[in-house]
Design brief:
The protein is α/β, with parallel strands linked by helices and 433 residues long. The protein folds into three domains: 2-50, no CATH class; 57-77 and 321-428, Aspartate Aminotransferase, domain 1 (Alpha-Beta Complex); 85-318, Type I PLP-dependent aspartate aminotransferase-like (Major domain) (Aspartate Aminotransferase, domain 2, 3-Layer(aba) Sandwich), CATH 3.40.640.10. It is built from 15 helices and twelve strands. It has helices spanning 2-15, 28-50, 57-66, 85-96, 109-123, 137-149, 164-172, 192-201, 223-236, 292-302, 308-314, 320-342, 368-379, 406-419, 425-428, and strands at residues 72-73, 132-135, 155-160, 176-181, 205-211, 239-243, 266-270, 283-286, 356-360, 381-382, 384-385, 397-401. It has a seven-stranded mixed sheet, sandwiched between helices. β3, α7 (164-172) and β4 form a beta-alpha-beta unit. α12 packs parallel to α14. It starts with a helix and ends in a 5-residue tail after the last helix.
Length: 433
């Protein structure tokens, strides 16, 4: 068994061009030497991959802000609204019944059927429960999806800015993210023209990914653009991945799922945001049939299954009356904060969904990370610097989350108004990159 492992590790190192395959070994000293060299080479591969990872800055800011008793929290995208009471009752009932065994790796069939019914009712899309896999949050869904699609060195097209963990998931798997800058000129939507440019400049892109509504912008993709991007991916024989975790949290027009345009679309969603259950760590991915067995094997080996009690609780999460109230609450917060922050910052994209506002702070500073730290230290207002989400103009932006009650948001705005009064602007402009 040890020799088989040694051979496998040697082959892995050879594929990554760090170690030539060893010749057959006959004595104990040679085996030890081979094992040592292989281990060193393998660790070099792992470390070079991890060197590419970036910190999830918002979590560092959360830690700092929680040490301040009077902090105003605009930083984290964590719902503050309680879930449907039916969910808590379902979890309590499952606990009383000691339903704590593993489920099958794809998850409870009853919950997958509920999700399939949700897509039929919400979008008019028929999805087989056999194409749905329950995962450990969307983080688990992305890791499973990327591992099923991307070999080492293969490319994944992402937008800049975008959710920072996407690229880090790719790096962990030794895949290569390719970034396309987006901005207000396309309403922060990736276009087919931009995707065509990326394919020309970076041949061999295996998958294209968007999010709608998007973090950190809150923008919603148009139906025609989704359709065109899906058609482009099919023409190029690329996979299309749609992160739809903020579906349900849309305020001005309906959101469209990518599944409306092709059953080859890969859709990822979660119970964390709209359903207000971030701590249950439960998400799902809808995959084409031919990828389901790969996903199932990955789930079996990496996670065994998503948390059982979470799955039983989520069976009760499709409480339409409660969900409508969740959306209405966030819409009211969006309306207030967008209007208030527009008096202080330039906001070039009114959020149509999610619970974020992307604010240009360049009239005050040229380094949003330093500016965010100064706000936190001097006013105890916590925000997320744009650099957490990419490089394209990110130094000009802060992300504000409206995941607290209106009085909390109003207090934060009052502090910002006092701090950013015109007489201070010259001093703040000293914050340059």
């Amino acid at each position: 068994m040890n020799l088989l492992f040694l051979a496998a590790m040697s082959a892995f190192a050879e594929r990554n061009k760090t170690l030539i395959l060893f010749r057959p070994v006959e004595d104990e000293n040679s085996i030890i030497e081979c094992l040592h060299k292989t281990t060193v080479a393998y660790l070099d591969i792992i470390m070079s991959r991890l060197d590419k990872l970036t910190s999830f800055l918002v979590m560092d800011i959360v830690r700092q802000a929680r040490a301040l008793p009077d902090a105003i929290h605009f930083e984290i995208g964590e719902p503050d609204i309680a879930p449907s009471p039916h969910v808590l009752e379902a979890i309590a009932e499952a606990t009383r019944k000691a339903q704590v065994q593993y489920t099958e790796s794809l998850g409870l069939l009853a919950l997958r059927e509920k999700i399939a019914a949700f897509y039929q009712e919400r979008y008019g899309v028929s999805v087989s429960p056999q194409r749905i896999a329950l995962t450990v949050g969307t983080s688990g869904a992305f890791l499973i999806t990327y591992a099923a699609l991307l070999n080492a060195g293969e490319r994944l097209l992402l937008t800049d800015p975008s959710y920072p963990c996407y690229k880090n998931f790719a790096y962990v798997l030794d895949a290569q993210p390719v970034f396309v800058p987006i901005d207000a000129s396309t309403r922060y939507q990736l276009t087919v023209e931009q995707a065509q440019w990326a394919v020309r400049e970076h041949p061999g892109i295996k998958a294209l990914q968007i999010s709608s509504p998007a973090n950190p912008i809150g923008n919603l993709y148009d139906a025609d653009n989704l359709r065109d991007l899906m058609a482009f991916c099919e023409q190029q024989e690329m996979y299309f991945i749609s992160d739809e975790i903020y579906h349900g949290l849309v305020y001005d027009r309906p959101a469209h799922t990518a599944l409306e345009y092709s059953d080859r679309a890969i859709v990822i969603n979660s119970f964390s945001k709209y359903f207000c259950l971030p701590g249950l760590r439960l998400g799902w991915v809808i995959l084409p049939e031919d990828l389901m067995r790969k996903a199932e094997m990955l789930l079996q080996n990496l996670y065994i299954a998503a948390p059982t009690l979470s799955q039983y609780g989520a069976l009760a999460a499709f409480d339409e009356a409660h969900l409508q109230q969740v959306t209405a609450t966030y819409r009211a917060r969006r309306d207030y904060l967008y209007e208030a922050l527009s008096q202080l910052f330039t906001i070039d994209a009114k959020p149509e969904g999610a619970f974020y506002i992307w604010a240009d702070i360049s009239r005050y500073a040229e380094d949003s990370q330093a500016f965010a730290q100064r706000l936190l230290q001097e006013t105890h207002v916590a925000t997320t610097p744009g650099i957490d989400f990419g490089q394209h103009q990110a130094h000009r932006y802060l992300r504000f989350a409206y995941t607290r009650e209106l009085p909390h948001l109003q207090q934060g705005v009052a502090r910002l108004q006092a701090y950013l009064k015109p007489s201070r602007r010259f001093a703040l402009r000293g914050l340059s990159r």
